[in-house]
């Protein structure tokens, strides 16, 4: 009986799994350097609720049908890379209509829309965010390009059946 052969059979899957886990960890860590984050701020929430947001930002809305899921304002030096987000002027009645139509999360735990400051990977404030959806991925690309992705899955508190409206 070859004992060395039996020992290899038991450790090889564990070794492969460990190496795959380490590779995944390093790749996630390498990609994370290009991602920004949001910081919840009551002043931003109040600014959106009273339609007194900073007019120096370029505003966009994420809308399906007549339902507005999120509004974001970005520094003019940044270029939003998405066809999902539609431009929205902050000094119009469309802006106040969009904030009044913002989606409320009435699932398991009701959550009102909240405002947040968008921070780039270095921690500098580069925009504002307003939504009931708590998960937003912000990827900063070369040449001041930004991609925003909302997590609209019902599992994490996003809207149910948003495509049917």
Helix/strand-derived category reads alpha+beta
Total helical segments: 3
Q: What does the average pLDDT come to? A: 79
Uncertain segments of ≥5 residues (pLDDT<50)? none
- Rg, please? 21 Å
Largest beta sheet, briefly?
Answer: 6 strands, antiparallel
Strand order of the largest sheet: 1-6-7-3-2-5
What distance lies between the first and last C-alpha atoms, to the nearest angstrom? 67 Å
The ordered string of helix (H) and strand (E) elements is HEHEEEEHEEEE
Please, what is the oligomeric state? single chain
> What's the number of domains?
2
> Helical residue percent?
25-40%
Percent range for β-strand residues:
25-35%
- Identify the overall geometry: elongated
- Strand tally: 9
Word description of this protein:
The protein is an alpha+beta fold and 165 residues long. It folds into 2 domains: 1-34; 35-164, no CATH class. The chain has 3 helices and 9 strands; from the N terminus they run αβαββββαββββ. It has helices at residues 3-31, 42-49, 93-100, and strands at residues 37-40, 58-64, 67-74, 79-80, 85-88, 114-119, 125-131, 136-141, 145-150. It has a 6-stranded antiparallel sheet with strand order 1-6-7-3-2-5. A 3-stranded mixed sheet has the order 4-9-8, with no helix packed on it. The chain is elongated, with a radius of gyration of 21 Å. The termini are far apart. The model has no long low-confidence stretch (mean pLDDT 79).
Search tags:
single chain, 165 residues, alpha+beta, 2 domains, three-stranded mixed beta sheet, 3 helices, 9 strands, 30% strand
């Amino acid at each position: 009986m070859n004992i060395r052969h039996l020992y290899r059979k038991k450790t090889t899957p564990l070794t492969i799994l460990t190496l795959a886990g380490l590779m995944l960890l390093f790749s996630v860590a390498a990609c994370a350097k290009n991602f920004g984050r949001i910081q919840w701020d009551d002043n931003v929430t109040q600014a959106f609720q009273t339609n007194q947001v900073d007019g120096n930002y370029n505003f966009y809305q994420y809308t399906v049908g007549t339902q507005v899921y999120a509004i974001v304002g970005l520094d003019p030096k940044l270029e939003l890379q998405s066809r999902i987000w539609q431009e929205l002027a902050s000094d119009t009645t469309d802006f106040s209509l969009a904030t009044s139509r913002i989606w409320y999360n009435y699932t398991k735990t009701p959550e009102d829309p909240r405002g947040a400051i968008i921070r780039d990977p270095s921690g500098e404030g580069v925009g504002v965010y307003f939504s009931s959806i708590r998960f937003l991925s912000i990827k900063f690309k070369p040449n001041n390009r930004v991609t925003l992705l909302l997590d609209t899955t019902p599992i994490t508190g996003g809207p149910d059946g948003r495509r049917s409206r």
